[in-house]
Amino acid sequence: SNPLNLVRFRNLVNLLCRRRLDNEHDIFIKFISWNSLYADFIHAAFPDVPTLFLYRDPVEVIASVFRETSAVLLARDSRQAEFLAGTTAIELAAMDDVAYLSSCYAHYFSVILDAQPQPKLLSFAAFAPDALEKILAAAFALQPDRHQLRQMHEQFSVYSKDDRNQTGFKDDSQSKHELLSDDHLRLAEQYCRGN
Asked: Helix, strand, or coil here: 162?
Protein backbone atom coordinates (compact mmCIF):
# COMPACT_ATOMS: atom_id res chain seq x y z
CA SER A 1 0.00 0.00 0.00
CA ASN A 2 1.81 3.06 -1.26
CA PRO A 3 0.46 6.33 -2.70
CA LEU A 4 1.17 5.38 -6.32
CA ASN A 5 -0.57 2.00 -6.05
CA LEU A 6 -3.57 3.60 -4.35
CA VAL A 7 -3.86 6.13 -7.20
CA ARG A 8 -3.54 3.35 -9.79
CA PHE A 9 -6.22 1.29 -8.07
CA ARG A 10 -8.59 4.26 -7.72
CA ASN A 11 -8.10 5.14 -11.39
CA LEU A 12 -8.78 1.58 -12.51
CA VAL A 13 -11.95 1.27 -10.41
CA ASN A 14 -13.16 4.71 -11.50
CA LEU A 15 -12.59 3.76 -15.13
CA LEU A 16 -14.55 0.52 -14.73
CA CYS A 17 -17.33 2.36 -12.89
CA ARG A 18 -17.73 5.31 -15.21
CA ARG A 19 -21.31 6.40 -15.80
CA ARG A 20 -22.80 5.18 -19.06
CA LEU A 21 -26.35 6.53 -18.65
CA ASP A 22 -27.53 9.74 -16.99
CA ASN A 23 -29.69 7.89 -14.48
CA GLU A 24 -26.80 5.79 -13.13
CA HIS A 25 -25.81 6.89 -9.65
CA ASP A 26 -24.74 3.80 -7.71
CA ILE A 27 -22.41 0.94 -8.50
CA PHE A 28 -21.62 -2.33 -6.79
CA ILE A 29 -18.20 -3.91 -7.18
CA LYS A 30 -17.91 -7.61 -6.46
CA PHE A 31 -14.46 -8.87 -5.57
CA ILE A 32 -13.48 -12.53 -5.55
CA SER A 33 -12.86 -14.16 -2.20
CA TRP A 34 -9.09 -13.82 -2.15
CA ASN A 35 -9.40 -10.06 -2.64
CA SER A 36 -10.51 -10.00 1.01
CA LEU A 37 -6.79 -10.23 1.81
CA TYR A 38 -6.54 -6.68 0.42
CA ALA A 39 -9.36 -5.28 2.58
CA ASP A 40 -7.15 -2.64 4.21
CA PHE A 41 -5.71 -1.56 0.84
CA ILE A 42 -9.20 -1.27 -0.69
CA HIS A 43 -10.40 0.74 2.31
CA ALA A 44 -7.34 3.04 2.06
CA ALA A 45 -8.19 3.71 -1.59
CA PHE A 46 -11.91 4.24 -0.95
CA PRO A 47 -12.30 5.12 2.75
CA ASP A 48 -15.87 6.42 2.43
CA VAL A 49 -17.27 3.50 0.44
CA PRO A 50 -19.28 1.00 2.49
CA THR A 51 -18.35 -2.67 2.19
CA LEU A 52 -20.18 -5.94 2.68
CA PHE A 53 -18.46 -9.31 3.10
CA LEU A 54 -20.77 -12.04 1.85
CA TYR A 55 -19.56 -15.34 3.23
CA ARG A 56 -20.65 -18.89 2.58
CA ASP A 57 -20.16 -22.18 4.38
CA PRO A 58 -16.58 -23.15 3.41
CA VAL A 59 -17.71 -26.71 2.66
CA GLU A 60 -20.04 -25.40 -0.03
CA VAL A 61 -17.29 -23.22 -1.50
CA ILE A 62 -14.82 -26.13 -1.54
CA ALA A 63 -17.38 -28.36 -3.28
CA SER A 64 -17.91 -25.63 -5.88
CA VAL A 65 -14.18 -25.39 -6.49
CA PHE A 66 -14.02 -29.12 -7.13
CA ARG A 67 -16.92 -28.85 -9.60
CA GLU A 68 -15.45 -25.85 -11.42
CA THR A 69 -11.77 -25.27 -10.70
CA SER A 70 -11.05 -21.75 -9.50
CA ALA A 71 -7.94 -19.60 -9.56
CA VAL A 72 -7.20 -20.34 -5.90
CA LEU A 73 -6.76 -24.03 -6.69
CA LEU A 74 -4.74 -23.25 -9.81
CA ALA A 75 -2.41 -21.19 -7.60
CA ARG A 76 -1.83 -24.19 -5.32
CA ASP A 77 1.69 -24.91 -6.58
CA SER A 78 2.83 -21.29 -6.75
CA ARG A 79 4.36 -18.93 -4.21
CA GLN A 80 1.05 -17.11 -4.23
CA ALA A 81 -0.47 -20.06 -2.36
CA GLU A 82 1.53 -19.13 0.76
CA PHE A 83 -0.05 -15.67 0.69
CA LEU A 84 -3.55 -17.02 0.05
CA ALA A 85 -3.40 -19.64 2.79
CA GLY A 86 -1.42 -17.49 5.21
CA THR A 87 1.04 -20.31 5.76
CA THR A 88 4.49 -21.55 4.75
CA ALA A 89 5.56 -23.65 1.79
CA ILE A 90 6.49 -26.48 4.17
CA GLU A 91 3.02 -26.46 5.74
CA LEU A 92 1.41 -26.30 2.29
CA ALA A 93 3.37 -29.33 1.10
CA ALA A 94 1.76 -31.43 3.83
CA MET A 95 -1.80 -30.38 2.91
CA ASP A 96 -4.20 -32.03 0.51
CA ASP A 97 -6.46 -29.78 -1.59
CA VAL A 98 -9.24 -29.65 1.00
CA ALA A 99 -6.83 -28.62 3.76
CA TYR A 100 -5.28 -26.01 1.45
CA LEU A 101 -8.65 -24.53 0.48
CA SER A 102 -9.83 -24.60 4.10
CA SER A 103 -6.66 -22.80 5.14
CA CYS A 104 -7.28 -20.15 2.46
CA TYR A 105 -10.87 -19.55 3.59
CA ALA A 106 -9.87 -19.42 7.25
CA HIS A 107 -7.23 -16.83 6.30
CA TYR A 108 -9.79 -14.73 4.38
CA PHE A 109 -12.18 -14.79 7.35
CA SER A 110 -9.41 -13.86 9.76
CA VAL A 111 -8.33 -10.86 7.67
CA ILE A 112 -11.91 -9.61 7.34
CA LEU A 113 -12.58 -10.00 11.05
CA ASP A 114 -9.39 -8.00 11.80
CA ALA A 115 -10.03 -5.32 9.13
CA GLN A 116 -10.50 -1.75 10.33
CA PRO A 117 -13.15 -0.74 9.86
CA GLN A 118 -14.70 -4.16 9.65
CA PRO A 119 -17.00 -4.64 6.66
CA LYS A 120 -20.61 -5.51 7.29
CA LEU A 121 -20.94 -9.30 7.38
CA LEU A 122 -23.68 -11.29 5.69
CA SER A 123 -24.15 -15.04 5.46
CA PHE A 124 -24.98 -16.33 1.99
CA ALA A 125 -27.86 -18.25 3.59
CA ALA A 126 -29.42 -14.93 4.68
CA PHE A 127 -29.05 -13.36 1.25
CA ALA A 128 -32.61 -13.78 -0.01
CA PRO A 129 -35.07 -11.73 -2.10
CA ASP A 130 -37.32 -10.86 0.84
CA ALA A 131 -34.30 -9.55 2.80
CA LEU A 132 -32.73 -7.55 -0.02
CA GLU A 133 -34.26 -4.19 0.85
CA LYS A 134 -33.08 -4.44 4.48
CA ILE A 135 -29.63 -5.66 3.44
CA LEU A 136 -29.11 -2.74 1.04
CA ALA A 137 -30.28 -0.24 3.65
CA ALA A 138 -28.13 -1.68 6.46
CA ALA A 139 -24.96 -2.31 4.45
CA PHE A 140 -24.99 0.60 2.00
CA ALA A 141 -27.63 3.08 3.23
CA LEU A 142 -29.24 2.50 -0.17
CA GLN A 143 -32.96 2.48 -0.87
CA PRO A 144 -33.65 1.39 -4.46
CA ASP A 145 -36.90 2.44 -6.11
CA ARG A 146 -39.52 -0.19 -6.98
CA HIS A 147 -38.25 -0.64 -10.54
CA GLN A 148 -34.66 -1.23 -9.37
CA LEU A 149 -35.80 -3.55 -6.62
CA ARG A 150 -37.90 -5.57 -9.07
CA GLN A 151 -34.88 -5.95 -11.37
CA MET A 152 -32.75 -7.10 -8.43
CA HIS A 153 -35.41 -9.61 -7.35
CA GLU A 154 -35.49 -11.06 -10.87
CA GLN A 155 -31.80 -11.88 -10.57
CA PHE A 156 -32.45 -14.12 -7.58
CA SER A 157 -34.18 -16.65 -9.79
CA VAL A 158 -31.14 -17.01 -12.07
CA TYR A 159 -27.83 -18.81 -11.52
CA SER A 160 -25.32 -16.00 -10.97
CA LYS A 161 -22.63 -17.42 -13.26
CA ASP A 162 -24.92 -17.66 -16.28
CA ASP A 163 -24.40 -14.43 -18.23
CA ARG A 164 -27.36 -15.27 -20.48
CA ASN A 165 -29.75 -15.58 -17.51
CA GLN A 166 -31.11 -18.91 -18.73
CA THR A 167 -30.16 -21.23 -15.88
CA GLY A 168 -32.52 -21.15 -12.94
CA PHE A 169 -31.12 -20.88 -9.43
CA LYS A 170 -31.59 -23.83 -7.12
CA ASP A 171 -30.30 -24.30 -3.59
CA ASP A 172 -27.51 -26.87 -3.74
CA SER A 173 -26.26 -26.59 -0.17
CA GLN A 174 -27.15 -30.17 0.78
CA SER A 175 -25.71 -31.71 -2.39
CA LYS A 176 -22.45 -29.81 -1.88
CA HIS A 177 -22.11 -31.18 1.64
CA GLU A 178 -22.62 -34.67 0.25
CA LEU A 179 -19.73 -34.25 -2.21
CA LEU A 180 -17.10 -34.20 0.55
CA SER A 181 -16.15 -37.15 2.70
CA ASP A 182 -16.67 -37.05 6.47
CA ASP A 183 -12.91 -36.62 6.91
CA HIS A 184 -12.90 -33.62 4.60
CA LEU A 185 -15.94 -32.12 6.32
CA ARG A 186 -14.11 -32.40 9.65
CA LEU A 187 -10.99 -30.86 8.10
CA ALA A 188 -12.91 -27.84 6.82
CA GLU A 189 -14.53 -27.46 10.25
CA GLN A 190 -11.12 -27.73 11.96
CA TYR A 191 -9.58 -24.90 9.87
CA CYS A 192 -12.57 -22.58 9.78
CA ARG A 193 -14.25 -23.21 13.16
CA GLY A 194 -12.98 -20.08 14.89
CA ASN A 195 -14.04 -17.82 12.05
From this structure: coil
